[in-house]
Amino acid sequence: MKTDTLKPSQVMTILAVASLGIDILIEQNSMVSYAGRDAWISLLLGGITGILFGSIMYFLASAYPGKSFPEIAVDICGRFIGRLFMLPVLIYILLHAGLSINIFAQTIKMFLLDRTPMYAIVAVMAAVAVYAVYKGIFTLSGVIDIIFPLAVITIAALILISLQQAEVENIFPILYKSHMKVLRGSFFGLLHFPGFGHVAYLLCYAQDSKVSIKWYIIGTAIPVVLATALTLVTIMVFNPLGIESLLFPTLTLSKSIEFPVTFLERLESIVAVLWISIAFGSISLFTFVSVQNFLIFFGRKSEKYVTLAHFPLLMIVALFIKNGMKVIEYYLELKYLLAAFVFIFSPMLAVLSVFQKRRQIRN
Q: How far apart are CA 313 and CA 122, in angstroms?
């Protein structure tokens, strides 16, 4: 069993923050390209589907108390097959964390630090994320407890303030000859919530490994509701065609709001600063998951050394691609690997787990 302990509410906040991160900045653009003005419906359906498929990970972790997901995979499939099974997961998580840092650096350079070199921003975020993971999951969860209310308040405030310039006609007619587009878009909507599977890495750190499913549902429902509402408002403000031309619709939305009060004249800077904490939380959590994958895959016991080794790994992934647009393109294409895990690997592992448990009962 792990020595650190997490409260059920901390598991909830970790799941929520992990699923916001980078996607909250770019999901409107990609979703509108799939489903047009009904993108918010696709995102909502995708989020609900994601919660259902993510519950597979919850029940897997509950069935193997004291073990994280890579340990469960090895337990079910054996050392060789289990590690082979973990390889695409290991690659996906590492690439996701690294590319997230690059996109984070792009937004900071664009909206705040336009004269700061990319490599400097990347190095700072990678170092801070690795240090947070180095201090342990319990310390990291304490930081997430602070970030979580900031994230919810920031996004909720942006949604409410933006309503003053929203035009409701931009979302009508709803579902007009677009049913198939909405269904297709819901598949991609699911992939914009990559943090749901983190529950399989967290329950082994929870008190007695007993976290009721309600905490999982709350933790995953919060980002779905926020992302859906934000996408809906963004469509009403910019219209679908306008969103397709925006690189970071969320930050552009904050920039479009005008206030007579001097303090709020640069709302986009305030939102960008607050979003730094959200990005840090998400990137740190994906780095933590990556460390757990590496530990089991390579059979290493020194978690601190594996954690420190992630600094150069994250730097390489984040800086390897120079073109910012290509980074976002690869980030979105990487989600197909996530789709394979969600729809193929995790259900298959769950089925194998059921057979294993039945054999154990018979014996």
A: 12
Distance, in Å, from the CA atom of 173 to the CA atom of 333, rounded to the nearest integer, reads: 30
- The predicted pLDDT at position 207 comes to 66
Q: Which helix (H) or strand (E) holds 164?
A: none
Report how far residue 258's alpha carbon sits from residue 176's, in angstroms, rounded to the nearest whole number. 33
- Residues forming beta bridges with residue 206, ordered by sequence position: 6
Asked if 233 and 39 touch (Cβ cutoff 8 Å), the reply is no
Collect all residues with Cβ–Cβ distance below 8 Å to 280 and sequence separation of at least 6: 125, 128, 129, 132, 147
Q: Name the token pair of 18.
A: 């992990």
Cα–Cα distance measured from residue 247 to residue 331, given in angstroms and rounded to the nearest whole number: 13
Which sign does the torsion angle of CA 237, 240, 243, 245 carry? negative
Q: SS in 3 state form for 89-124?
A: HHHHHHHHHHHHHHHHHHHHHHHCCCCCCHHHHHHH
**Per-residue pLDDT tens over the stretch 95-145:** 999 999 999 999 999 888 889 999 999 999 999 999 999 999 999 999 999
CA–CA dist 297, 94 (Å, integer): 13
Distances (CA, A) of 50 to 55, 184, 196: 8, 14, 7
Instruction: Give pLDDT tens digits for 264-301.
Output: 555 666 777 778 999 999 999 999 999 999 999 998 77
CATH fold, domain 8-362, is Amino acid/polyamine transporter I (1.20.1740)
Helix (H, G, I), strand (E, B) or coil at 206: strand
Structure-token pair, residue 217: 């549902």
- State how far the Cα of 194 lies from the Cα of 348, in Å rounded to an integer: 19
| Joined tokens for residue 167 | 């035009």
Chain centroid to Cα 87, Å, comes to 20
Distance CA 53, CA 200 (A): 12
- Torsion (CA) 290, 294, 191, 6 in degrees, nearest 10: -50
Give the pair of three-digit tokens for residue 243.
């969103």
247: which residues sit within 8 A by CB, 6+ positions away? 26, 29, 325, 328
Q: Identify each DSSP E strand in the chain by its residue range.
A: none
> Would you mind telling me the total number of residues written for the chain in this entry?
363
